[in-house]
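User: Let's play a game. I give you a shape written as tokens, and you guess the letters that built it. Ready? Here's round one.
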């Protein structure tokens, strides 16, 4: 049995455009279940413990950057430590990912947003159709956080692929869901840097744009689908 797991997370919402939420991003992390990552997870859990967290701590990457709960009492060095551990963990995994996004200021309503994202996802599936068909079963893990995204996933994947199973999950249950959250966070920062809309508060976490690209973006995006 050859099984593909797809972990899905999003950044933003389907509401009206505002300066603080300019994009809607979908990240899909792909994992062939024949590739055992148990040891990677165990190592990461141990490293979290050494940093003073519970071994099962659910890493929330955006709050690390923004110094929000449960990281509000940590200084920037401590927060970077846990973020860097998450990046290192991601780089060691045999996974791939794909991001899709829209810029909300160019979208008139939820219907248009859903349509554009559905087209992006469908185009990607069709482009790699034979690769997806090589799996006996595909399981999609999502927390059903936004009903619009749930509908997009269900309609596109069920229409194009056989043997798709959907599972509602909690982010704390799967490290790969937290990896999807990490990539969503990095993609949002990348887009905001490109559009010159990143805040000084956000920028302070990275130091310089060149440091962000060299130490984080370049390293993680080697896992991007189609990157050889």
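Assistant: Ready! My guess for every position:
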């Amino acid at each position: 049995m050859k099984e593909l797991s797809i972990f899905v997370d999003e950044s933003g919402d389907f509401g009206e455009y505002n300066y603080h939420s300019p994009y809607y991003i979908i990240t899909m992390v792909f994992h062939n279940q024949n590739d055992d990552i148990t040891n990677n997870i165990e190592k990461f859990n141990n490293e979290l413990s050494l940093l003073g967290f519970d071994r099962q701590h659910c890493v929330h990457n955006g709050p690390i950057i923004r110094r929000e709960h449960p990281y509000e009492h940590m200084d920037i060095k401590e927060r970077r430590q846990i973020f860097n551990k998450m990046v290192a963990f991601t780089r060691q995994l045999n996974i791939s990912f794909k991001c899709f996004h829209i810029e909300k200021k160019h979208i008139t309503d939820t219907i248009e947003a859903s349509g554009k994202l559905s087209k992006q996802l469908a185009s990607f599936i069709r482009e790699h159709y034979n690769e997806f068909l090589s799996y006996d079963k595909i399981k999609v893990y999502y927390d059903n956080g936004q009903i619009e995204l749930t509908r997009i996933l269900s309609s596109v994947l069920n229409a194009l692929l056989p043997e798709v199973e959907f599972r509602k999950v909690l982010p704390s249950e799967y490290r790969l869901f937290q990896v999807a959250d990490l990539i969503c966070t990095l993609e949002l920062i990348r887009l905001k840097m490109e559009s010159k809309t990143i805040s000084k508060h956000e920028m302070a976490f990275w130091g310089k744009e060149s440091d962000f690209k060299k130490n984080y973006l370049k390293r993680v995006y080697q896992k991007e689908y189609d990157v050889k």
